[in-house]
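Explain this fold:

***
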Amino acid sequence: MALTGIQILKMLPKKNCGECGIPTCLAFAMKVAAGQAEIETCPYVSEEAKATIGEASAPPIRTISIGSGDAKFVSGGETCLFRHEKRFEHATGIAILMKADEDEASIDGKIVRFNAMEYERVGVYMRANLVALQDTGDGAAFTALTEKVIAKLPKAAVILMSENTENLKEAAAACGDRTPLLYGATGDNLDAFAALGKEINAPVGVKGSNLDDLVELATKLVDAGVKEMVIDTGARTMRGCFEDNIVARRSAIKEKFKPLGFPTITFPCEMTDDLMMEAMISSVLMAKYAGIVVLSDIQGDVLFPLLLEQLNLYTDPQRPMVVQEDIYPISGPDENSPVLITCNFSLTYFIVSGEIEGSKVPSWLLIKDTEGLSVLTAWAAGKFGADLIAAFVNKSGICDKVKHRELIIPGYLATIKGELEEELPDWTIIIGPREAGHLPAFLKEWKPTA
């Protein structure tokens, strides 16, 4: 049962030192109770209290971590069934499968595609983030494949798949500090998996023959002291996996059923021989709680739609999507190119930048941080006024990039033209069109004054 802020406060040292980044212990306790702060950030709390509070305040779906640095992947931490209730915490991991006995050319191709396929959208860089390495019985080949992947895929978290714990141990050693997920625990090798997981401090992937069997195995692993786990119900059809994922999430969230309170791993690669169908199955499972989906391969037309779905599902609905405040050069502008300014609401940015690109007029686009509000809303909220725009223009460095001093503002901000001229006396303020669709014609007619 979750602890209240007052119950947590009683276990804190009550120093009010502020070293956790929060002024008082009471405020810190309230944030821990609300899930907005981690108890580990208090440098003086006892280990006993840390364990008690951490256990009580853990989310229904436990958080697990694989890898480190650029290759770190985090899953779990979920607290709700539907995104609009709060938000989903960690996006579904997309893994590519490589087998120890697979043709070397095939492995090399997958490595090249994994490294090459990275996309940027709304300031977010998206890519596949895991590699699932499958043992086929030859421990030496399995370890060699692991070493190759570790060397050539610096941004990939690793899933080691084998029912042989000796082979797993050798391959895990090749991972170095990039802690892998050890997948393959069943009723036949459960004790050996639990021992290995605790020995190398790695999460364990457990596979049941069905949901009931999985509950029994997960319970035994928890009793054996395994804290981080990924669960697989054993379903290898889309419907079966879909239904099991829902049962597991509902049981963990609604009933606080701990044996199913872990991220799930699913294998579309074992449900069909068609890569496009794998993507279709993955899209369904991502929408219904899959922590990781494993594909047999990736290519652009398969990966990109899944990444966009991932972005849509795991964007916090309570926060608007934004782009970073900065100067954005479009189409290679120079010192005589026009300067435009708008807000950092991502939809506004993409519409405006798209129209500028379409105009073929090289331009400088200033993006002002308005906390994700659109132009008129930001102006009405006092976040896109003349004083704030002027301060941003002066500090942005745009003066060093252009000879002229003309700033094009959105047509909807025409009323602040006079105020902005007072705030920026060296600049001429030009009122641009109200609609982004009129920008191409406007920019083609624009000429800097002497």
Observations:
- The radius of gyration is 26 Å.
